[in-house]
User: What shape does this take?
Amino acid sequence: ISLKDVTERIACWPDVTGCLLSQSSGLSLVGTAPHGLDKAAIVAFAPRMFESINKSFTEIAGQETDALVIPSSGTSFHLFRNQDLYLIIMSRLPQMPERHMKVARFVLAALSTRRD
Assistant: This one.
């Protein structure tokens, strides 16, 4: 299965409006964003968001996080990180169902392992 296949299949989940796969450098690998959202900006800011949040989160929780949910009106962003890969899922829902979040983490882990 190709990276494109992965993002296309996730984009077909109920209430998902887009799915992107990118690298920590901010380079977009594959995927689509909803109309009106800048794909390049989304993938460029994902690593920065994790870096900023994790500076504080490490002080609070003693560890970093590899998943962020940013609910906003219209489109919510679900960001997942594994090594240098980022999976960004955009949804109409403020938060995707937990089963979808588990699948997203599993898929990203498998992709990261495949790249090694």
The longest helix spans residues 39-61.
